[in-house]
Amino acid sequence: MAQMTMIQAITDALRTELKNDENVLVFGEDVGQNGGVFRATEGLQKEFGEDRVFDTPLAESGIGGLAIGLALEGYRPVPEIQFFGFVYEVIDSISGQMARMRYRSGGTKNAPITVRSPFGGGVHTPELHADSLEGLVAQQPGLKVVIPSTPYDAKGLLISSIRDNDPVIFLEHMKLYRSFRGEVPEGEYTIELGKADVKREGKDVTIVTYGAMVHASLKAAEELEKNGVDVEVIDLRTVSPIDIDTILESVKKTNRVVVVQEAQRQAGIAANVVSEIQERAILHLEAPVLRVTAPDTVYPFSEAENVWLPNYNDIIEKVNTVMNF
């Protein structure tokens, strides 16, 4: 086992798949010699050459179109959208083309494309860089949407995404890139897409979350334990499709649920989880399912983001509410 940051684990996954399959291509804005804004592709162009790791113009729509064409010719493109706030420039390629490829071709064509992109708040980025827009793509059938929270998960999930024959949106929270290290196997391994992970077992209340909010939830769980509340924390890892079976198994044990997301309340992941629980397990609930989210406003300028973003104190408050219902 090696100790890696999330960005190192992502680079390792890309290197693994570039070695394993000559049809894997990595491209995007500044991903070549510069290694990307966050150095996720650092050293890969030197190792694998400019034909397999290369820069594109500053045109997300062109990146999307190139990925589709390459996929139809038998390649496995791994394009990077420099920040996911720029996804609007390529949304037709993603939702209008990649997601529909298998259906519209009658199963004769695939779109084995893994779109990587950083997102998320807490690092004082400029406007349009930190937005949590996973709900925008998670509501599109035909796409898998993956959001790792640890270096171990990042490597295994990214390898699985690249090997998948359908399009995957692989979102990497910027705050997690270098904030801690974790054990990561040096060889190749995969983690099943669409499978949640119980990051902490408990018996009193379930927290369902993903991305950076996994760590806020684990911190809240530690504080709540001091007051005798035993919290189970589920990391969705894949937010589309959602692993409802793992969630329901936990709900039937704890009978209380709080769903946590960094995105605004009106964004879709938490709301979808809540509705699935209440449709499938309402008789197991001892309290309403509550949400911790950001407010329904545009993402603020960096001076105000720490006030705007949900944190572990907000999670503690909602857990206490469901415990005292």
From TrEMBL:
Transketolase-like pyrimidine-binding domain: residues covered: 4-179
Entry cofactors: thiamine diphosphate
Origin superkingdom: Bacteria
Keywords, in A-Z order: Oxidoreductase, Thiamine pyrophosphate
UniProt entry tagged with the keyword DNA repair: no
Gene3D superfamilies, per the entry: 3.40.50.920, 3.40.50.970
Alphabetized GO MF terms: oxidoreductase activity
The keyword Disulfide bond is annotated on this UniProt entry: no
Identification of the protein by name: 2-oxoisovalerate dehydrogenase subunit beta
Record lineage: Bacteria, Bacillati, Bacillota, Bacilli, Bacillales
